[in-house]
Amino acid sequence: KRIRERGRDGFYKGKTAELVVAEMQRQGGLMTQADLASYQAIERMPVRSSFRGYELVSAPPPSSGGVHVSQILKLLEPFPLKELGHNSAAYLHLLIESMKLAYADRSEYLGDPDRTAVPVAKLISDDFLGQRRTLIRDAVATPSSEIRPGTVEDRESTETTHFSIADQFGNVVSNTYTINFSFGSGIVVPGTGMLLNNEMDDFAAKPGSPNGYGLIQGESNAVSAGSRPLSSMTPSLVLKNGKPWIATGSPGGSRIITAVAQTLLNVMAFDMTLGLATSAPRVHHQWMPDMAMVEPGISIDTVNILEASQHKILRSDRTIGRVNSVQIEDGWLYGYTDPRRPGGHVATW
Asked: Following DSSP, what letter does each residue of 232-295 receive, concatenated?
């Protein structure tokens, strides 16, 4: 009601702000009412890249999703993916190695662009990724300890929820928002029903040490006053012939990037329907720790071949993301929600 009547000031100032700050201080937090009052949302230009004639429009820093989904897609673009076979050992080898390269770059270069120069154009450029692609060895995994972030010269100045919406007027929205861990900090502000997040874990509290998702991050994402932490959120639009075709995204912490990348690869490289692309088994690698998580559904023979190729495999019952999408095809709208977890829904008017 306060937000409805006063707009942003109904949250960042007045009674709601007083309640939030009082609860945080009771829990030992440092936030003040002045901190809340000074907060400003920032509109940024999206990351734009291409893959086999499609255009990807995705989230910019301080979200890392747009940069690194673009990297993974473009690293794989020259390979005959469909001929290799979906989720074959040969394809998954290339995919895992691409993930490792992307997450190594994430650890070095991504952060709040208001505080550190993030070389977005360089990181998704053909020249840079062509050099990175040469590090992918045929049928043999490269240990993560041997993979370093690429050299970029002249730097340029419960949890997460995703929804995708399209309407009859051509408006399309892909939105991801997060409180980080399940139930965030676990603290509810009395009188509001509102959970406080634990987004401080998205900073590199100690550069070079893993955060709650095991991600290794560098000085570019260090804690500093007024900075916004790095995120893996990847709300994305895919344009076909210049018009919105797919709106997609996912929750899942560090696994968001790889979940969205694989869903888009399944559609654009393997010609799957978006429904099949969403439900297909996934893998995940984030450079460090040097371990590829493999969902049930990847064949044991494929896993054995990957292990013989020196990939370290973690067979896991944990899911990799929960992708939710809308597709616009021939004037029809199709909604898809990932079957991996309960709580997803598709609705039409």
From this structure: ----EEEEETTEEEEEEE---GGGHHHHHHHHHHHHHTT---HHHHHHS--EE--SSSS-EEE-
